[in-house]
Amino acid sequence: MAPIIAPSILAADFANIQKEVEMLNESSADWIHIDIMDGMFVPNISFGMPVLAAIQKHAKKPLDVHLMIEQPERYVETFKKLGADTISVHYEACPHLHRNLQQLRDLDCRVGVALNPHTSVELLADTLQDIDLVCMMSVNPGFGGQKFIEQTYQKVRKLRAMAEAQNTPLHIEIDGGVNSENAPKLIEAGADVLVAGSFVFRAEDPIATIAGLKG
């Protein structure tokens, strides 16, 4: 089965955001990945509600919203109203994770949890039944264009085995440094959602690049 491809709009040309979103609409991309950064949880600021609203206005693909922010419970309802189909909160930003997951479930969106590279997948063992998607960071969060962390393959295999042991369906999403070389290995390890930013938007032919990632 072909993986879900979710190009990261963070790497797009924001002077031509409508054109970039329309390109994704025409491509074989499945979702549009949107990174929200607050400058506190990660050392960078991306964009917030007005930009998400502008993207949603033109997008014909589901919006996969990745919240790299502190206290995400303050904002998830707003992001849902702005069109988020998936909302991922960071494990490291949620000391009461089960409560966060229930809040997302009540919003009737796909429930996601993101993990930083140093965070063990075993920490999700007690909440895996409440999660639809795990966004596994394969670079340190906050900046695009970083080198892929090789330890990711092992983490994917471990998480997929955990999900199978609990007999729960789970999307495993890889975010950071994804390209045509590591994509097949990630899928073989058990990932089924691939986020690609610079690799897509800096390509000579982004539409062909997206098709190539789908295999």
From TrEMBL:
One of its GO terms (biological process) is pentose-phosphate shunt. The keyword Cytoplasm does not apply. It holds the Pfam family Ribul_P_3_epim. InterPro entries: Aldolase_TIM, Ribul_P_3_epim, Ribul_P_3_epim-like, RibuloseP-bd_barrel. SUPFAM superfamilies: Ribulose-phoshate binding barrel. One of its GO terms (molecular function) is D-ribulose-phosphate 3-epimerase activity. Keywords: Carbohydrate metabolism, Cobalt, Isomerase, Manganese, Metal-binding, Zinc. GO terms for cellular component: cytoplasm. The keyword tRNA processing does not apply. Signal peptide: none annotated. Pathway: Carbohydrate degradation. The active site is at D35 (proton acceptor), D175 (proton donor). Its cofactor is Co(2+); a divalent metal cation; Zn(2+); Mn(2+). A divalent metal cation binds at H33, D35, H66, D175. It catalyses: D-ribulose 5-phosphate = D-xylulose 5-phosphate. Binds 1 divalent metal cation per subunit. CDD domains: RPE (cd00429). Its EC number is 5.1.3.1. Substrate binds at S8, H66, G142, F143, G144, G145, D175, G176, G177, G197, S198. Belongs to the ribulose-phosphate 3-epimerase family. Catalyzes the reversible epimerization of D-ribulose 5-phosphate to D-xylulose 5-phosphate. This is Ribulose-phosphate 3-epimerase. The gene is rpe.
